[in-house]
Please model this.
Amino acid sequence: MTVGEGASLVERGREDKHEPPVVVLVGNPNVGKTSVYNQLTGERAHIGNYPGVTVEQRSGRLELPGHGTVTVIDLPGAYSLSARSAEEQIALDALLGHAGLERPSLCVVVVDAGQLSRNLYLVLQLLELELPLVVALNMLDEVAHNPPSPTALSRFLGVPVVVTDGRRGTGMNELKRVMNERLGKPTSTRVAVSYPPALLADAECVADALPAAWRTTPGRDRALALWALASVEPGDELRDIPPGLRERCDEVRQRAEPRDIDRELIGARYACIDGALESLYARLERHPPKRASSERVDRVLLHPIAGVAIFMLLMLVVFQALFSWSDPAIRVIERSIGWLSGELVHFLPAGVLRDLLVEGVIGGVGNVVVFLPQILLLFLMIGLLEDSGYMARVAFLMDRVLKTLGLHGRAFVPMLSGFACAVPAILATRTMERQRDRLLTMLVIPLMTCSARLPVYTLIIATLFPPSHVFGLVPLQGLLMVGMYAFAVVTTLVVALVLGRTAVRGRRVPLVLELPPYRMPSLRLTLRGMLERALVFLKEAGTVILACTVALWALLAFPRLPEHEPERTPSAEARAAEARVTTPPVHPTAPEPSRSERRIEQSYGGRLGKAIEPVFAPLGFDWKIDVGIIGAFAAREVFISTLGLVYGVGDTDDQALPLREKLRHETQGGKVRYTPLVGLSLLVFFALSCQCMSTLAVVRKETQSLKWPAFLFAYMTTLAYTLSFLVYQCGKLLGFS
Model:
């Protein structure tokens, strides 16, 4: 069955089942399309993913008098329907009913009145496809000194034009009335683009190769043929393109050389638009006053030096917010979780059920909910920056640097957010349009030094490195902490360079964006989007994280020791062996292991730690550190509490000093077990390894695949093991202990 046949079956099935009509909202990025969508659907929005790709789909319900309940879908922003990536093809699939998507009964194209010429290019493509169309002329207030005439625009296009203001809700009732009238009715356009004869001949040749199920009228067939000529080429990422159509496009393009088909196609459409502009305005101005003022500000904000300095200052504020401003809310959540755990301990009798609920379920939920303040703050700030028009400038500014590494300009903010937490940072990659760019950014974000690594770094550095000074001036411990952050940044950039040319190889699409004028952000709409993202995270990622945390709890809790286990006493052989030792130990002999230590040692997790000890021994780790590494998969900071359990310290937040002392005084064969070299090896391992189930769960959710989280875990673990091995073994060869 072809794609078109599948789409036809979907359409017939919808009609047979009397499913609600579908209205799609389409438009360029930054035209206020989502604001119009929010005004139409209110609070009845639903967020999911399009079939086969991980681009977010927003759908909601709207009541129209003549048609009852209508499904409204907000399509991803697109400058045109010419697609060269899987994400860009979504708009065409949704409009034509391909790839299992329902064919719409009406298209509402949102147009920015201040960028009318650029926006009309997409409108022409929609008209050529003979789609039922309504134009929402948005942001008219920004060109109030010389607005385009809605009447003249409607006369030129041959479709209804409604003046709207998505931010204030103006014109929504009129838009609903027109939608109700036009729903399902065909459009007879008055626009006729004069294409060159050679291009029309090329289109006719390609139209002959279109699948039978795609073909309807000669005009629509020609529009699809022109779309194929502009989109299908070697190296594209398009899905479900019939081989015959792909071969025909390649043949026509080769035969047309040295003609530039893209230039001919784009030039003909803009010639049609430019010829009509003078009749749409009272006076034609290429640079309205508000755009001119934005350009003056851009001279500073897009400056290679001043622009970067201002952006770094702004990001410092964002970073500080994620790192410390969210701390009070995080502490409230942690105390609430602690209070609930204490109440359960007091209410329930001791046993497996209480431990499961307190350590597994409540602890697992806490590991998820504790990210919520950071997620809310991150999406609040990104939303405000996006709504103001500044985020488009950031993408343009940083693209100059990141493109040399194969990254996209929009990758910078998620990567910087990774210093606070990888989970909201990975969610922030949704602001990037292309799947390849999102995927590459997701795969390198976990290398950034997140806040969960900080307690581990603090414990290792404070315990195993003396408070000395380098060159008599620079504190060694502070230098190590700064060095770990610098090490993370350099490693992230190098890995991005390698992955962009190997595992996530793809044709780099140039950054194409239109810089909107600066606007006052809408706090209400930003808060709504922020809450929607937070609910999606808690609902979908939380279930996976909770299951993984309970599994880890089971590893470290079973088999259980008897309730009344007799105290251990040294055997006669052990006492005799101790008496024969003539060399005094460097440090006092460690005390007899506590019950909690023995419980961890005898658990499945402890046995696993001993089983993998030979694997990690070349890194300088013993089985106790291995158990800590296993426990850290729930969350990296759990490494400390797991070591506390192993050494019988208890609550390591309140009793960090006993844990440090036990680690310093741990001996093996009369020698100190944990040396600065072991500490450096452990720091490198924690800097690079993917010990965070939350991160893996979110990557699984965002990619809709087990392949990429498995790849992420494998490459980061391999990298961590290799560099940690080199650090420890080279250190030993150089004579360091």
